[in-house]
Automatic annotation (TrEMBL):
Pfam families: DUF1761. It comes from Lysobacter dokdonensis DS-58. The lineage of its organism: Bacteria, Pseudomonadati, Pseudomonadota, Gammaproteobacteria, Lysobacterales. This is DUF1801 domain containing protein. The chain crosses the membrane at residues 6-28, 49-70, 82-104, 111-133. Keywords: Membrane, Transmembrane, Transmembrane helix. Coiled coil: none annotated. InterPro entries: DUF1761.
């Protein structure tokens, strides 16, 4: 996998990180906190730097895995194919896996829609970046 574009993978990971800041910040912070049972004003359980580091590493691993998938399936040759693959992975794999977990955990549909929506957009963004910059 030495022919993967590492700068594009890092850019994709950064895009997910930035999307998360907007998605779970001004767009859905209050709704997400309410549905997740989290006090938005409570002191974090762990140091924020640790949380953000874990989130970035997870985004980087996901971007790398998605880049490998595009490379192996040769879907990354056209932008629309890469974006389509991102939406498909986000919806069919990630969102549906969350759906199963949320159903058994008794979590709300609204919480699932917020979290699933983020991941669908995350992988669509990966598709845009990796499709344009391959």
């Amino acid at each position: 996998m030495h022919d993967l574009n590492w700068l594009a993978i890092i850019a994709a990971a950064v895009s997910a990180f930035l999307l998360g800041g907007i998605w779970y910040g001004p767009l859905f912070k209050n709704a997400w906190c309410r549905e997740a049972g989290v006090d938005p004003n409570a002191k974090p359980k762990s140091h924020p730097a640790k949380t953000f580091a874990i989130a970035f590493v997870a985004s980087l691993v996901a971007a790398y895995g998605f880049a490998m998938l595009l490379h192996l399936t040769n879907s990354g040759t056209e932008l629309w194919k890469a974006v389509h693959a991102g939406v498909m992975v986000g919806f069919f794999y990630v969102a549906m896996s969350f759906g199963i977990n949320y159903a058994f955990a008794g979590r709300s549909l609204k919480l699932w829609l917020i979290d699933a929506g983020y991941h669908i957009l995350q992988f669509a963004l990966y598709g845009v970046i990796l499709g344009l910059w391959h």
